[in-house]
Amino acid sequence: MVVLDTHTLIWWVDAPRLLSATAATAIDAADGLGVSPISCWEIGMLVSKHKLGLDRDLVGWVRRALASPGIEIIPLDPRIGLEAALLDSRAFPSDPADRMIYATARSVGAKLITKDRRLRDFDPRGTLW
Q: Which CATH architecture has domain 2-128?
């Protein structure tokens, strides 16, 4: 399994050409694609702030994305919340969504597929792009 960062999920569903060759290969080879519920919230926030346009209504887009083959929602639990809170605040980006998504990937022992340079610099072995 690999875990998709929010932008990775969006691009995988709507604009796969934006994925790096490494990311696309890892997604194709994965035995599962983990998604944090926080990504659904982030997509909703981007749409509500008019920073993201979708080809259908938000709920329909998310339903379709989550019904894609291999997608598995990884439920948030207290362990993920605590791990996200305990990440080194000097080294890890402060964005709460990034913290929760990264902690989600760690909770299942999966690599996080992200273009976010800050996350990749924090954990080069646990992320890829």
A: 3-Layer(aba) Sandwich (3.40)
Q: Could you write out the three-class secondary structure of 33-95?
A: EEECHHHHHHHHHHHHCCCCCCCCCHHHHHHHHHCCCCEEECCCCHHHHHHHHCCCCCCCCCC
| Alpha carbons 112 and 114: distance in angstroms, whole number | 6
Q: How far apart are CA 18 and CA 10, in angstroms?
A: 10
pTM: 0.95
Smallest CA-to-CA distance from 104 within 41, 38, 40 is with 38
How far is residue 2's CA from residue 26's CA, in Å, rounded to a whole number? 8
> In whole angstroms, what is the distance from residue 67 CA to residue 108 CA?
20
Q: What is the pLDDT of residues 42-77, one digit of tens each?
A: 999 999 999 999 999 999 999 999 999 999 999 999
